[in-house]
Amino acid sequence: MYLNSAREMVVMIDVIAQIARGEHAQRTGRADEARAWFARAIDASLRPGAVPHLLPLALVSAQRLDEAREALDAAHDSGKISDQAAATLYVRAKAFERAHAALDRATAWTEWRDPLMRAGIDLERGNVNDAKAAVSAAIAMFEAEARLLLRDPDRLDACDQPDVAKLYATLAMVQLAKGDVDGSFNSAERARSFSFDTLIQVNPVISQWWQRAAAQYSAISNTIVDQLPTAAPDRTAGLFAKLDAADADLAAAERAVDAASPGLLLRRSAPGHLRGAADIQDMLAEGTLLLEYLAVGDDLLMWAVTRDVLRPIVRELRSNELAVLVRDFQITCTAGRASNTALSLLLVNPVEDLLRTHNRLVIVPFGALTAVPFHALRLDGLPLMLTHVVSYLPRAEAYRPDVGVSTARPLIVGDPEFDATLRPDLNRLPGAQVEAAAIGALLEASDILLGAEATKAAVTARLEACNILHLSTHGHLDELSPFASSLVLAGQGDLSVADIAGLRFGTDLAVLSGCDTGRGEATLGGDVIGLTRSLLRSGVSQAVVSLWPVDDEVAPIVMYRFYQELAVGTPPASALATAQRAIFTLTPDDMHVAYHKLGGTPASEGTKRRRGLNLPPELRDDEVIPQPLSGDAERYWAPFMVVG
């Protein structure tokens, strides 16, 4: 008996591991890799000792739905799979009548996923009222659980699952089916409220301590999950010792918060009052179009919002297909010029009438769409950047009308002299130093940290006093431990997400002109953990960040033109659009001349560099640039975006 149980466990772990790898590849647009992992999972599920539900699970994951339904029918009809498990798999296999019958025979609801599954089945079968009752019950159960999660890492983990986003997407679909467009938009906003909450309003020192401790705890725990399978025993012991220390520090910070304001953490964990659709419409400036997205399962939901219009749009598109479109678009952008017909048809064409009458565009993306430079999508054959001013928000409630920012107190950091023995994969960035020096001269800045002066201590000591922070350096995106993502500084230092979470900023605008500073790890619930999120949560009003590796000689030209606009009072989003339009018109020779005028010496084509490290091969930095491109290549003008 024990031998059989052990065999079943080994096979189950093998199948589940292959499926998990396949799903991760699928979410990130690696379709061929995903198919290979799913094929391995299917093969493993056919081995002796495999429990009956593994084969239909593997087939469903691979989207081989006909085969999945056949295998599921055989296993369920013979009593080898419980009604509850069968109902779950039937839903994924889109056999909704069989799912309904199995669920009717199952036991009472034990967790919020049970009524959520019922709601999905009822909605597919046209029973809208029953679906609303079930999804409302599911949300009540989930939010009751979420109120007990006082720690930010725990809340993120709870939201890092597709069923959480599916809760609110299902409610939105039910509301749309009942004609409640306002309610559907409000549900999309509520889905974002759990993972992007407000700052703790207590003593700033305590608040910063709590935020830093929570981020550090999450960074270490994610590192353990990543390294545990291959780490040596002594390394494992050291990691767990660090985790214990981080846990103790976080617990102490929580006690300090509770002492300063008893019950605050518990009150904070409950969702607060959210602005409704009508409130958002009243806030929008004339000529502004806000597009909010929610992509869950095979449904892509969009809301187009102006002062006078609230238009819902629903498209059916498999999530893996969307991820592939996004990945292909970004890869072709980084390589030179993108072919984005499919994404433009999907994301732009449904609202082209509104785009023609509104030239200010605000994007609230979700999940895979956070990696899309919407300003590079095309309308009438032209990128939106040429005709619209585009910015991005984590949620619609964060919208504020455009205003200029003061350039009176900038802190400018460029080309930190990092320890080359610790970072042998990096090269110094002459363009970053040119960029920082040129911007410093333009703004008559007194705080310019270059080379060896750009240490972590020097930077963090000045953050509270500056109203603009400009960091021109390498960036590091850690997709497995996003709280460990960082910006490289001088010596052995870096500025990580965990560090930023514990800092106090007096900053209206942060400009991170390094590589990949705008990307982060999209949780399964659609949130994005990264440098941008941490900056906004730490008090920065707006951030300029990049979606892919930035060419070291082009970034200074973009940034200098951007700051020229800021200096005369142009709001950041409009300033960036002007800079991007200027780059768009340049030839390769024009860019050489512009870089030289800023004080740089143009490198030969074989020695040009891009900023960043530890990237996927197709986005890898510090590579040889293949050929000179004109400024209209998305590679040059499109990576930067304004968030906030």
Give an account of the 3D structure:
- The chain has 644 residues and is of the alpha/beta class.
- It folds into 4 domains: 2-193, Serine Threonine Protein Phosphatase 5, Tetratricopeptide repeat; 204-269; 277-398, Nucleotidyltransferase, domain 5 (2-Layer Sandwich); 410-643, 3-Layer(aba) Sandwich (Rossmann fold), CATH 3.40.50.
- Helices cover 50% and strands 13% of the residues.
- Helix 10 (162-177) packs antiparallel against helix 11.
- This is CHAT domain-containing protein.
- Residues 341-644 form the CHAT domain.
- It holds the Pfam family CHAT.
Helix-strand layout with pairing:
Layout: H1 2-27, H2 31-45, H3 54-61, H4 65-77, H5 83-92, H6 96-105, H7 113-124, H8 128-146, H9 152-159, H10 162-177, H11 181-193, H12 204-227, H13 233-260, H14 264-269, H15 277-283, E1 288-296, E2 299-305, E3 310-316, H16 319-335, H17 341-347, H18 352-355, E4 360-364, E5 378-379, E6 382-383, H19 384-387, E7 389-392, E8 410-416, H20 430-443, E9 447-451, H21 456-462, E10 468-472, E11 475-476, E12 486-488, E13 494-496, H22 497-501, E14 509-512, E15 520-522, E16 528-530, H23 531-537, E17 542-546, E18 550-551, H24 555-567, H25 572-584, H26 588-597, E19 610-611, H27 634-637, E20 640-643
Parallel strand pairs: 1-4, 4-7, 8-9, 8-10, 10-14, 14-17
Antiparallel strand pairs: 1-2, 2-3, 5-6, 11-12, 12-13, 15-16, 17-20, 18-19
Helix pairs in contact: 1-2, 2-3, 3-4, 4-5, 5-6, 6-7, 7-8, 7-10, 8-10, 10-11, 12-13, 20-24, 24-25
